[in-house]
Amino acid sequence: MSGLKLMALDGEDLSIISTHMQDSVFKLKDASFDRRSGQFLVSANRFVWESVSRKGQSPERCRSVLAVKRVGNVRSYGFDRGNKEQVLSLLAIQFTQNGEGPEGTVELTLSGGGAIALDVECIEAQLTDVSGGWETVSKPQHPQD
Questions:
Q1: Alpha helices of 10-85 — where are they, by DSSP H?
Q2: Beta-carbon neighbour count of residue 100 at 10 Å?
């Protein structure tokens, strides 16, 4: 088990979580928003990028949970919200600040042009690995510009 546990309270912290979550895949049914508690959760199969840097180790994935707190609203586009079995691939997580205060939008950018936008009071996110790693046959590829 990779045992990764990260907390983000600002944009710099969130960019570190984004790096670790790049190329994670999840089914839409594994994402949820609880309006009462203001928490958005997504349980994903995270590509363990840190395992690739270890010589002689095969690429791995592990089950991870991303929790974003202080969420007031969730919006999405670019995918069918009615198809809970579809697999989505996460490319990046970014924060856009609204004005001078800490509030803004945390956007989960998905492959294929989709996104999930979380309107937040401030950045408060946590990434936790919840399973051991398993070998995967392929390493995600990103074209170079």
A1: 11-21, 49-52
A2: 6
As a whole number of angstroms, the distance between CA 68 and CA 71 comes to: 7
∠ CA 99-15-54, rounded to 5°: 175
> How does residue 54 score in pLDDT terms, banded at 50, 70 and 90?
low
- Specify the residue for token string 């401030």: 122
The mean predicted confidence, pLDDT, of the chain is: 91
Contact of 31 with 85, CB cutoff 8 Å: no
d(CA 125, CA 79): 24
CA distance 83 to 62: 24
User: Which token pair is 94?
Assistant: 């970014």
Q: Which of 66, 48, 40 is nearest to 2 (CA)?
A: 48
Element (H, E) at 103: none
Q: Is the pTM of the predicted complex or chain greater than 0.85?
A: yes
DSSP string covering 25-42: EEEGGGEEEETTTTEEEE
Beta-bridge partner residues of 31: 42
